[in-house]
């Protein structure tokens, strides 16, 4: 999912390929930032992905 | 290779298939278990098994989080959902899992306030929006999902939320694999290791498989060529007389996992002495409960639950499917009395269940050429 906006509480608004937006906790990823591509599972980002890489 | 189109390239797939055929010892039958339900779906969605010789048998393991929840725990959830004033939240596929007294969806139809959520954070938001109600999140899943529950509980604690509770059914991946390896009715040659669980725990926890049992394991990604590469990796190790932990999914899985995720799991959860798994029975130290520091959020302490062990329906053979003893289509009720629309067993409910994979992709018995 693509990180769009990051809140002060570490919860980000992320968007999937279909354009669906959800709240995602980013505590497990170092220095998350808008534009990051994240592997998200059940509302938490498990890792940052390289652009275009098959996850 | 690292991009999606490369991992779905048909020509590369055929090349890998030829390499697998060349690696196989003629006349030998291989049983390789893919642990993760996501892998099962990739295999049948893309027809990966059609590219393997028939003496390479893929056996489907217990890595679908919904499928391993026993009926008694569903009944416990339903009992909590019927408590006055409770808003009960869970993932969507959990709502259709049959317990001894129907499903959570049935309980919702009877008037219980049961709501589907995409994450525990959604459940916490409902709790904040309804301060006069008690909100329970029915937590399921392996180490992939447990960090989300842990981080949500840490937020609830930090914010002083007092009306949010967790009914914890989280499980860990290593104990059931050890139980399967100890099982006398299942002789496996190697494992395709779970990909997303390993992003959290890393590859290191699987070292016991080669060390204690002399079997190879290859941690795999979720694209069709990931699976072919991983099957080839297992067969290559067997051909070379090696057994080790191989990480085919290095582009996502670090060998030591995600240290921050492991820290939050250690803070919020502790191991239960034992936990019941559908089909596998009670397995020691395989389930998680909330640690004492989070006891105020523990739904099992807050509410009275039946805690009764309920046997699976006689017609249902999910247990044998989860242990890889039978193929889904060998179950007496597969595709007849048990379908994704009207499931009897958990393996037909979840999108990660082996029975649902076979049913949805039309994969029934078929002949393949042996080597």
Structural write-up:
The complex is a heterodimer of chains A (55) and B (371). Chain A is mostly beta strands and 55 residues long. Helices cover 0% and strands 47% of the residues of chain A. Chain A has no helices and five strands. Chain A has strands at residues 2-6, 11-15, 21-25, 37-41, 44-49. In chain A, the strands form two sheets. Chain A has a three-stranded antiparallel beta sheet, with no helix packed on it. In chain A, a hairpin with a 4-residue loop joins strand 1 and strand 2 (11-15). Chain A starts with a strand and ends in a 6-residue tail after the last strand. Chain B is α/β, with parallel strands linked by helices and 371 residues long. Helices cover 37% and strands 17% of the residues of chain B. Chain B is built from 16 helices and 13 strands. In chain B, helix 2 packs parallel to helix 11 and helix 7 crosses helix 12 (259-268). The radius of gyration of chain B is 21 Å and the shape is globular. Chain A binds chain B through residues 9, 11, 22-23, 25, 27-28, 39, 41-44, 46-47, 49-50, 52-55, and chain B through 2-4, 6-7, 91, 118-122, 125, 141, 144-145, 147-149, 151-152, 155, 196, 199-200, 221-223, 226, 251-252, 258, 260-261, 264.
Provide key terms for this protein.
heterodimer; A: 55 residues; mainly beta; three-stranded antiparallel sheet; two-stranded antiparallel sheet; 5 strands; globular; B: 371 residues; alpha/beta; five-stranded parallel sheet; four-stranded parallel sheet; 16 helices; 13 strands
With strands numbered from the N-terminus, the spatial order across the biggest sheet of chain B is: 2-1-7-8-9
Q: Name the chain pair with the biggest interface and residue counts per chain.
A: A-B, 20 and 34 residues
Strand content of chain B: 15-25%
What is the distance, rounded to the nearest whole angstrom, between the alpha carbons of the first and last residues of chain A? 11 Å
Q: What composes the largest sheet of chain B?
A: 5 strands, parallel
Radius of gyration of chain B from the CA trace?
Answer: 21 Å
User: How many distinct beta strands of chain B?
Assistant: 13
Uncertain runs of chain A are none
Helix content of chain B: 25-40%
Which segments of chain B are poorly predicted (pLDDT under 50) over 5 or more consecutive residues? none
Which structural class do you get from the secondary structure elements of chain A?
mainly beta
The beta-strand count of chain A equals: 5
Mean pLDDT of chain B: 93
Shape of chain B: globular
Lateral arrangement of strands in the main beta sheet of chain A:
1-2-3
Instruction: Find the structural class of chain B using helix and strand composition.
Output: alpha/beta
Largest sheet of chain A: 3 strands, antiparallel
DSSP helix count of chain A? 0
Q: Counting H and I runs of at least 4 residues, what is the number of helices of chain B?
A: 16
